[in-house]
Write a structure and sequence with these properties.
The complex is a heterodimer of chains A (586) and B (325).
Chain A lengths: L6 H14 L3 E8 L6 H11 L5 H8 L20 H6 L6 E6 L3 E7 L6 H10 L3 E7 L6 H12 L4 E7 L8 H18 L3 E6 L23 H7 L12 E3 L2 E6 L2 E7 L4 E2 L4 E5 L4 E8 L8 E2 L3 E6 L10 E3 L6 E12 L5 E2 L3 E6 L2 E14 L6 E2 L3 E2 L4 E14 L6 H4 E5 L6 E10 L2 H5 L18 H8 L4 E4 L4 H13 L4 E4 L6 H14 L2 E4 L6 H10 L4 E3 L5 H4 L1 H14 L15
Parallel strand pairs in A: 1-3, 1-4, 4-5, 5-6, 25-27, 25-28, 26-27
Antiparallel strand pairs in A: 2-3, 7-15, 8-9, 9-14, 10-13, 11-12, 11-15, 12-14, 16-22, 16-24, 17-21, 18-19, 18-23, 19-20, 19-22, 23-24
Chain B lengths: L3 H7 L21 H19 L3 E4 L4 H14 L8 E4 L6 H13 L4 E4 L2 H5 L4 H4 L1 H20 L3 E3 L16 E4 L27 E4 L7 H11 L10 E8 L2 E4 L13 E6 L12 E2 L5 H10 L17 H8 L3
Parallel strand pairs in B: 1-2, 1-4, 2-3, 4-6
Antiparallel strand pairs in B: 5-6, 7-8, 7-9, 9-10
Helix pairs in contact in B: 2-3, 3-8, 8-9
The chains are: A alpha+beta (586), B alpha/beta (325).
Chain lengths: 586, 325
C-alpha cells in the first residue's frame, strides 16, 4: 500500500501509472473441444497472471463441484451460469479480462461442443489472435480442422496452437513435433499467415505463464510470453478513408457534424471527401472531439466531422476518400455463417445491417456449403444452423463495401429475421457479383419452389417495401419532383414520378389506384388538380397524402421540401412503428 | 466535500489528463484506454440513433461517472440526447444524493429520480426483508416500473463483464422480454460491432457500453479525464461499526442495531450501494492515484463487500434473470 509519505515508492508508481495508460490491447479467442482443457487453461492463465481475486478463488475452493484431478478446479473460475456448473459444460461465449505490465488482454472464451461454429465465429469476429487447443495425446482431430478453418474464415491471421496435456504425453518431444508438423500443414492449406505451436500442460502449469522445466527441449516462448509479444496486425490492408455516418449532431443552427467511427484510413482537415450515395464532393473542415479539434484522425477512432459545404447526409450514408472508392452495389457474394435454427432460405427477404446501414436483402444462390470437418465444398439449397456457405445476395438499396479480407468493418454484415427479430446470419463479403454472371441467373428460382399460387395481397407488398403507398402533389414542379424521386428511390422506397399533364379527372384517379395496390409512392408534378380530385385521392390513400399547394413555402425552399417529404415518407413506414431506426427511410 | 471542483483539485496530481489525449500521434493502433473509449462512444451513438426512447441508468458510482463522460464525448458539442434515470432505494448515502443532485445538472443532463414509493410506504427495508427481497422490491421492481412508465425501449447500464461470473456472458446489447427478464441461454449472437436493435412492442434492450472495461480501466480513465466522483471513494476517518464481518459506515444513531457502538476508522468505499448493504474497506487512499495503487495491490474483488452477491451461489444470475441490472 502506498501513502503520500513514501515518496520514492510514489515516483515508481507514477511510472507504473504512465505505463498502464499506454499499453496495447490484444483480443484473442480460445477454441477447443470439451476435453481439451480449455477452461482449465484460461483459469490457469487468469490465476497465474494474478487476475483472480482471493474471494473468487475461495468460492471455487469451497464449491461442492471439482471436476479436476487437482486440488482446485480452475475451470470453475470461468463457468458463469448455473447450468454450466451443474452440467460441467460451457454454454455461451464468455469474455475475460486480464493484464500484464506489457499488454491488456480480452479473451473471448468459446465453448467447444455446443453451437461451436456460431460461438467460435462470434468470438473470432473481434479477435486479433486465435488460441486453438489440441489434445497432445490424441493428435489432430476433425475439430482442430474446424477451429482453424473458422479462425481463417473470420480473418484471423495469427494462430497459436497450444498442444495441451503434455503431462499425459510424458512431455515427449516427438509427440509435440508430430502435432506441430500436422498443424503447420493445415495452417498453410488455410492460408493462415502466422502460426506458433507451444507444448503446455494447463493442469500442471507448464509453459502457460511459467517456463516448464519438464520440457527442456522446447526453446520457444511460453503461451503468455507469445501473447505479450506477438506483433499486432499493423493495419488492415485497406488504407483508403471510410467513415460510416452513425448520427448527425446538430445542437443549434451554427453546428452540423457527422458522427461516426473511422472504419479505415486517416483524415486531416482540408482533405477531399466523397459522400455516398449522392456522390457529392466536399472537404473536411474540422475533426471535432470533446477534447478539442484534432489535426488528424485514423482508423477505429470515434470522431465528429464538420464539412466545408452543407450537404445532405444522414445515418447509413458514408464519407470516403475520392481516390479508391468502395464498391457500391446491390449485389455481392459473401461467406455466411448461419446462426439460427430456422435455415437460410433462398428468395426470402431478411434485413441486413452493414456498417450503419440497414435494408432488406435476399439470397439469390448458394454457390456451395463448406463441410467444416473435411473442408470440402458441397452443393446446397439452404443453410442450417452452424453451417457455412458461399452465397450470392441482392439488397434493396446499394451497400458501400470493401472485401472483408481488406477491412473487417467494411466487409461484415449481420442478417436479421424481420418477423422474429433474431440475428440469424453473419456474413463476410468476398466481392461484388459481376453483372454478367447475375444476368445468367435463372429468374424462376422462386417459382420453382412448388408453392401453391396464393394471390399477393397489397399488405404483403407493403411489408416487402417496408412502407405504405402515398401521394405527394407537387403540381407543376417537375424538376423538384424529379429530385425528390431520386432522393426517395436512393433511400430504397418504391416511388414513381408522374409528370404528364394529360392525367386529369378519372384517368388520374384510376392510375393512382393501381399505384396504391402496387404499394408505390406517387410524386405528381402535372397540371393543377381540382379540390374534388384531391379529396378522392386522400380518401383512396387513407389520408397518406401530402399536398404542397397547402404548404407553399415548400415549393420555394428545396431543402425544406426534401426534409418535409422525408418526414412524410417516414410516416408511411409499414413495420415496427416504435423503433426510430429506418429500414430504408433515414 | 461534494462540490465537484473540490473533487477535481484532489485528483490533480501526477499530470492527469495527459496520457490518453489524442492530440498528436502517428497513425497507429490506439492504446487500450483510447480503444475502449472509442468503442464505447460507438455503442452510445448506435443506440441513441436506433432506439426510439433510450435512457441512461445512473447509479452515481464510478462506472456511471465514466459512462456519463463518454456520453458527453459521444454527442459533443450537442447535449446528451437522453435522460438519466436514478432508481433511488432511499437507503443511499447522503453524499451520493448530494452528488446526484448537483453534478448531472452542472453538465446539462436531464435527471429522472424514481422510487418504489408503494413498497417504501409499506415499510420495505433490508433488515426485516433480507437483502434479496429488499433489492427485488426497491431496485429490480422499481427499475422495471420506471422503464415502463417512461416508455423506454433501451436503457444504458454501466455494468462490466469483469464484475461477476454471470456478467461475463452478457451481450453489449442485452435483450429483455416484455417482463424485463434476461434469458442467458437464448441471447442474440453478437458479432463484430454490429448490433441488432430490432424489438417488438414491450421488449427492451439493456445496453452496456462499458462491457469491456475492467475496474482498473475505469480508475485509470477517471484519473486521465479528471472525472468528478462521489467523495465516499476517498479515505477519511468515518464512524463505523463491524457487522457480520463488514465495516458499516454509520451516518446517524438510528442506523445502529441494539448493542452496537461506533468507532472511528480511516476507510473508504470501493463500490457504492445502499448504506446497510455496502461495506467500507480500511484504506489510506485519498487521491485517485492512491486508489489505483491500492487496487493494484488488492487481492479481493470489488463486489466482495456487496451482500446481495453472496446470499447464494449464482445469486447475481438469478437477479439478472428477473430484470436486475
Amino acid at each position: 500500500m502506498i501513502s503520500s509519505a513514501q515518496n520514492t515508492a510514489y515516483e515508481g508508481f507514477s511510472a507504473f501509472l504512465e505505463r498502464n495508460m499506454n499499453t496495447d490491447l490484444l483480443r484473442f479467442t480460445t477454441a477447443g473441444s470439451v476435453d481439451d482443457g480449455k477452461s482449465t487453461l484460461i483459469g490457469r492463465l487468469l490465476h497465474d497472471s494474478k487476475a483472480v481475486y482471493e474471494d473468487q478463488l475461495a468460492s471455487v475452493k469451497k464449491s461442492r463441484i471439482n471436476r479436476s484431478t487437482g486440488p482446485v478446479d480452475f475451470s470453475l473460475l470461468t463457468d458463469g451460469l448455473r447450468a454450466e456448473r451443474e452440467q460441467g459444460i460451457t454454454i455461451d461465449v464468455a469474455y475475460r479480462y486480464f493484464a500484464t505490465p506489457r499488454r491488456k488482454f480480452i479473451i473471448a472464451d468459446t465453448p467447444g461442443h455446443e453451437q461451436y461454429t456460431r460461438n467460435m465465429a462470434t468470438g473470432a469476429s473481434t479477435a486479433d489472435v486465435a488460441v486453438i487447443l489440441i489434445d497432445g495425446t490424441k493428435g489432430l482431430l476433425p475439430q482442430t480442422r474446424r477451429h482453424a478453418f473458422i479462425a481463417s474464415l473470420l480473418g484471423i491471421s495469427n494462430v497459436l496452437a497450444a498442444v495441451n496435456k503434455m503431462d499425459l504425453a510424458e512431455y515427449r518431444e516427438d509427440a509435440f513435433h508430430k502435432l506441430q508438423d500436422d498443424f503447420l500443414v493445415l495452417a498453410a492449406q488455410l492460408g493462415i499467415a502466422s502460426v506458433q505451436c507451444i507444448p503446455i500442460s494447463a493442469l500442471e502449469g507448464d509453459n502457460v505463464v511459467d517456463r516448464s522445466r519438464r520440457m527442456p527441449w522446447y526453446h520457444g516462448p511460453t503461451l503468455l510470453e507469445h501473447l505479450e509479444t506477438v506483433p499486432l496486425p499493423e493495419r488492415d490492408s485497406l488504407q483508403s478513408f471510410r467513415f460510416p455516418v452513425q448520427t448527425v449532431i446538430r445542437p443549434d443552427a451554427t453546428f452540423r457534424g457527422f458522427a461516426g467511427r473511422i472504419a479505415s484510413g486517416a483524415i486531416h482537415p482540408g482533405d477531399p471527401l466523397v459522400a455516398l450515395p449522392s456522390g457529392r464532393r466536399t472537404r473536411v473542415r474540422s475533426i471535432v472531439t470533446y477534447d478539442g479539434e484534432l489535426p488528424q484522425a485514423s482508423s477505429s477512432m470515434s470522431v465528429t466531422l464538420q464539412l466545408d459545404e452543407e450537404i445532405d447526409l444522414s445515418r447509413g450514408d458514408m464519407l470516403v476518400s475520392p481516390g479508391r472508392l468502395p464498391k457500391v452495389s446491390r449485389k455481392f457474394h459473401a461467406s455466411v455463417v448461419w446462426l439460427h435454427g430456422t435455415p437460410l432460405e433462398l428468395g426470402r427477404t431478411y434485413l441486413v445491417k452493414h456498417t450503419a446501414r440497414q435494408t432488406k436483402i435476399r439470397a439469390l444462390r448458394i454457390r456451395h456449403r463448406v463441410n467444416v470437418n473435411t473442408l470440402a465444398e458441397e452443393p446446397a439449397t439452404r443453410l442450417e444452423l452452424n453451417e457455412i456457405g458461399s452465397v450470392d445476395f441482392e439488397t434493396h438499396v446499394p451497400l458501400f463495401f470493401d472485401p472483408y479480407s481488406s477491412n473487417r468493418t467494411m466487409g461484415s454484415f449481420i442478417l436479421i429475421d424481420s418477423a422474429t427479430n433474431a440475428t440469424v446470419g453473419a456474413g463476410m463479403i468476398q466481392e461484388s457479383v459481376a453483372a454478367v454472371q447475375l444476368a445468367e441467373e435463372p429468374e424462376d428460382e422462386f417459382a420453382a419452389s412448388g408453392r401453391p399460387a396464393i394471390p399477393v395481397a397489397p399488405e404483403e407488398r407493403y411489408a416487402r417495401h417496408g412502407h405504405f403507398p402515398g401521394v405527394v402533389l407537387l403540381e407543376g414542379r417537375a424538376a423538384l419532383a424529379e429530385r425528390l424521386e431520386r432522393f426517395l428511390f436512393d433511400l430504397g422506397l418504391e416511388v414513381l414520378h408522374l409528370s404528364r399533364s394529360e392525367f386529369f379527372g378519372d384517368a388520374f384517379v384510376e392510375t393512382i389506384r393501381v399505384a396504391r395496390t402496387a404499394g408505390v409512392i406517387i410524386l405528381y408534378s402535372g397540371g393543377a388538380l381540382s379540390r374534388e380530385t384531391k379529396d378522392r385521392i386522400a380518401l383512396e390513400f387513407d389520408n397518406r397524402f401530402l399536398d404542397a399547394a397547402g404548404a407553399p413555402e415548400l415549393l420555394f425552399d428545396e431543402e425544406q421540401a426534401v426534409r418535409h417529404v422525408q418526414a412524410f415518407a417516414r410516416s408511411l413506414r409499414f413495420v415496427d412503428e416504435r423503433s426510430k431506426i429506418q429500414q430504408n427511410v433515414n | 466535500m461534494t462540490n465537484a471542483s473540490e473533487v477535481l483539485v484532489r485528483q490533480s496530481e501526477l499530470e492527469p489528463g495527459r496520457a490518453i489525449k489524442m492530440g498528436t500521434f502517428a497513425p497507429r493502433r490506439l492504446n487500450h484506454l483510447s480503444a475502449l473509449e472509442s468503442e464505447s462512444i460507438h455503442i452510445l451513438r448506435e443506440a441513441a440513433a436506433e432506439f426510439a426512447r433510450p435512457v441512461m441508468l445512473y447509479s452515481i458510482g464510478k462506472d456511471s461517472s465514466v459512462m456519463l463522460r463518454l456520453a458527453q464525448k459521444a454527442f459533443f458539442p450537442g447535449r446528451i440526447p437522453f435522460p438519466l434515470l436514478h432508481v433511488d432505494t432511499s437507503y443511499k448515502f447522503p453524499e451520493m444524493i448530494e452528488f446526484r443532485d448537483s453534478y448531472p445538472r452542472q453538465i446539462g443532463a436531464e435527471l429522472i429520480v424514481h422510487k418504489n414509493q408503494e413498497a417504501l410506504d409499506a415499510g420495505a427495508n433490508p433488515y426485516s426483508l433480507g437483502t434479496q427481497k429488499c433489492c427485488g422490491l426497491l431496485k429490480t421492481k422499481s427499475l422495471l416500473d420506471a422503464l415502463a412508465e417512461g416508455g423506454f425501449d433501451a436503457a444504458f447500464g454501466g455494468a462490466r463483464r469483469d464484475e461477476e461470473k454471470s456478467r461475463a456472458k452478457e451481450r453489449i446489447y442485452s435483450f429483455r422480454d416484455s417482463l424485463g427478464q434476461w434469458d442467458p441461454k437464448n441471447q442474440r449472437p453478437e458479432l463484430w460491432n454490429i448490433f441488432n436493435s430490432r424489438l417488438n412492442k414491450g421488449e427492451s434492450i439493456r445496453v452496456f457500453p462499458l462491457s469491456n472495461w475492467t475496474e482498473l480501466d475505469v480508475w485509470l480513465y477517471i484519473h486521465a479525464e479528471q472525472i468528478p466522483i462521489v467523495p465516499l471513494y476517498f479515505a477519511r476517518e468515518r464512524d463505523v461499526v463491524f457487522r457480520n464481518g463488514s465495516i458499516v459506515v454509520i451516518d446517524s444513531p438510528a442506523q445502529l442495531l441494539p448493542g452496537e457502538k461506533t468507532q472511528r476508522l480511516k476507510c473508504r468505499m470501493r463500490s457504492l450501494g445502499c448504506v446497510p448493504c455496502t461495506g467500507a474497506i480500511r484504506s489510506d487512499a485519498d487521491t485517485v492515484p492512491q486508489i489505483i495503487a491500492e487496487m493494484v495491490s488488492f487481492r479481493r474483488s470489488e463486489r466482495e463487500n456487496r451482500a446481495i452477491d453472496h446470499d447464494e451461489e449464482g445469486s447475481m444470475e438469478l437477479k439478472k434473470r428477473e430484470g436486475y441490472f
